[in-house]
């Protein structure tokens, strides 16, 4: 029975696409994914600008203390948190492409405004607004991805977004290294020029996204043939996600009552502690290992590549083994080892290696998103899962920088020990999630319904007894 559960939970892995469907997916990929990559890339560059600014003059310009800098890292996520509820309601009522375009223009404007800030209070207000306007981006992209792609394709899609985050670190770092040479140009410090340049780029991208982002399987931008429209219908039945403008409260309550929701959310919170702490303090942390300001900026590049490699490795292993949750656990374990090295070793190359290994958390995060996308159905329920995931993600990223206590600089031993423990808790949460879904699969395989489910009824995974969870 165990082997049958494993086979059924990954049965669409063996599905062979027709030539027509392959052509459709190729068209979808080239039309949709470049813009998604650009959004994720610019989002990370904008979010991480504070870390680079720390060694480009912002500390001196705004007369910031270490504690105030920690709060600037955290307050971004306060805005992020407050917008999650209204964002979830908006996602059921607005067209996603234009909505994302407006958000990009708004946060690009905030980036430019940040460049003229001179005090902690002004910077804090700008960081809060930046978090507020960026908050809708990821939930919106996740729901679009889950509608456009088959369940078996979604791990690769989420992996792509995480890889773009890593590339955001790489390309953003190279750009920041160049911007560092603009210091004092026009009497402005380099960090101000960084915010202006990335802000303008964000606004331009927002205008493009408003008009050209594919946000529906039948989007006119795809110019579908009649045969491709039939393929879209079949793919929609597979991914079990059909947009509904009606918020179904019973689906929300069903989600809230499920232990799985809270286990996944708490695992996300634990992973996000490390994400928030290391992103905000990455440049200062590396500088504390004995490198100069420009060297510490350039050494962010291997960190970006490590995050991209972690995501790529996690996706590759999960697709080869058909084991999403076990692979996520493996990536959390590797990340935990990296954090242990950071806590235990005072100085040297091995400590820097530990920093890069810790970015295996990117693979774990990618696969956690895949679990929600693959194993939750019902449009309102999926939005609730994504929304709760983002709330806990936000709380974790808010707390993470505060764990990097100034009097422990540059080693931040307490933070590293905390991040290692958080990875362990993530592993335990994921084991329980897998146990719950495997147990439900066993019941369903013993009592399968011979009638196929009509996906347009918008049933939840709990209501649809034909729904088999991908483990």
TrEMBL record:
It holds the Pfam family MFS_1. It is found in: Membrane. Residues 32-441 form the Major facilitator superfamily (MFS) profile domain. The chain crosses the membrane at residues 32-59, 71-91, 98-121, 127-145, 157-181, 193-214, 261-285, 297-317, 324-346, 352-372, 384-404, 416-437. This is Major facilitator superfamily (MFS) profile domain-containing protein. One of its GO terms (molecular function) is transmembrane transporter activity. Keywords: Membrane, Transmembrane, Transmembrane helix, Transport. InterPro entries: MFS, MFS_dom, MFS_trans_sf. GO terms for cellular component: membrane. The keyword Membrane applies. It comes from the Eukaryota. It is a multi-pass membrane protein. The keyword Metal-binding does not apply. The lineage of its organism: Eukaryota, Fungi, Fungi incertae sedis, Mucoromycota, Mucoromycotina.
């Amino acid at each position: 029975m165990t082997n049958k559960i494993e086979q059924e939970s990954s049965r669409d892995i063996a599905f062979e696409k027709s030539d027509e469907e392959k052509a459709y997916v190729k068209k979808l990929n080239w039309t949709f994914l470049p813009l998604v990559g650009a959004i994720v890339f610019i989002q990370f560059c904008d979010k991480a600008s504070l870390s680079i600014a720390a060694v480009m003059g912002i500390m001196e310009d705004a007369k910031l203390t270490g504690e105030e800098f920690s709060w600037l890292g955290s307050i971004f996520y306060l805005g992020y948190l407050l917008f999650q509820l209204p964002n979830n309601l908006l996602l059921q009522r607005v067209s996603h492409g234009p909505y994302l375009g407006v958000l990009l223009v708004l946060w690009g404007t905030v980036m430019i405004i940040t460049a003229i800030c001179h005090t902690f209070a002004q910077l804090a207000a700008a960081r809060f607004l930046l978090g507020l306007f960026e908050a809708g981006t990821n939930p919106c992209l996740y729901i679009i991805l889950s509608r456009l792609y088959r369940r078996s394709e979604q791990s690769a899609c989420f992996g792509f977004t995480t890889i773009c985050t890593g590339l955001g670190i790489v390309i953003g770092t190279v750009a920041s290294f160049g911007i560092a040479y603009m210091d004092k140009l026009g009497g402005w410090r380099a960090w101000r020029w960084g915010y202006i340049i990335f802000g303008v780029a964000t606004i331009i991208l927002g205008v493009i996204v408003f008009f050209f982002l594919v946000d529906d399987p039948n989007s006119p931008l795809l110019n579908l043939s009649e045969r491709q429209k039939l393929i879209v219908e079949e793919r929609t039945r597979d991914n079990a996600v059909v947009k509904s403008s009606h918020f179904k409260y019973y689906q929300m309550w069903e989600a809230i009552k499920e232990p799985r929701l809270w286990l996944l959310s708490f695992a996300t919170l634990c992973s996000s502690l490390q994400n928030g702490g290391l992103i905000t303090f990455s440049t200062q942390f590396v500088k504390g290992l004995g490198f100069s300001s420009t060297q510490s900026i350039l050494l962010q590049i291997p960190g970006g590549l490590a995050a991209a490699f972690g995501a790529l490795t996690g996706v590759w292993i999960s697709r080869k083994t058909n084991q999403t949750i076990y692979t996520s656990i493996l990536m959390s374990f590797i990340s935990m080892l990296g954090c242990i090295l950071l806590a235990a070793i005072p100085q040297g190359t091995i400590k820097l290696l530990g920093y890069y290994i810790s970015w295996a958390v990117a693979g774990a995060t990618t696969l956690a998103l895949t679990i929600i996308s693959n194993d939750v159905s019902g449009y309102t329920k999926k939005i609730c899962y994504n929304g709760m995931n983002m709330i806990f993600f936000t709380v974790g990223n808010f707390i993470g920088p505060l764990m990097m206590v100034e009097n422990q600089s540059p080693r931040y031993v307490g933070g590293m020990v905390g991040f290692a423990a958080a990875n362990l808790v993530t592993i335990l949460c994921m084991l329980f999630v897998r146990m719950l879904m495997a147990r439900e699969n066993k019941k369903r395989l013993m009592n399968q319904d011979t009638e196929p489910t009509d996906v347009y009824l918008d049933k939840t995974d709990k209501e649809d007894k034909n729904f088999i969870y991908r483990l």
